[in-house]
Amino acid sequence: MTHWINSIDPHGENCPTCTRWAKMNKFKITKANARTLIWMHRNTNNDDPWIDMVAVRKIVPMSNFQHLKHWNLIARLTPNVKTSTKYSGVWMVTPRGHEFVKGLLSVPKYMYVFDDTVHGTDTPDVTIHDCIEKFDYDEHMGLI
Q1: What is the pTM of this model?
Q2: pLDDT for 112-141, tens place per residue?
Q3: pLDDT tens, 75-98?
Q4: Which of 12, 100, 134, 136 is positioned for an S-S bond with 23, CB 3.0–4.6 A?
Q5: Bridge partners of residue 121, in order along the sequence
Q6: Is 126:107 a contact under the CB 8 Å cutoff?
Q7: What is the dihedral of CA 130, 131, 137, 140, to 10 degrees?
């Protein structure tokens, strides 16, 4: 299976085993992601670092912020009781995420993700400042 994952067509294709549509996604830390991470960092309570992102969704600029988990910049709280929902919507900034926001850490600009698992990275490395300096719509939309 790993060999097939490494050879997935960039536009996606059907899995030869289960015929499910599969695509290796290339995620980038966007300006919106960076802004959400900064907001989370500023609003982290040291006594309880978890933030209910569903409750604040109308006041926080979030655009696929959950992709930040692939860089280990945020972590999701998994409910410890069986509920009808798979996840709680509650997230926290990791120590690595706090370092990134403070400008003490750079991370790969791109992550290659298949089935919610990172399978590779791509350069260049970026800092929080690189992520928020400018916004290129064509690059964000994959038009370049």
Answers
A1: 0.79
A2: 998 888 988 998 999 999 998 765 555 544
A3: 998 766 655 556 678 899 999 999
A4: 12
A5: 111
A6: yes
A7: 110
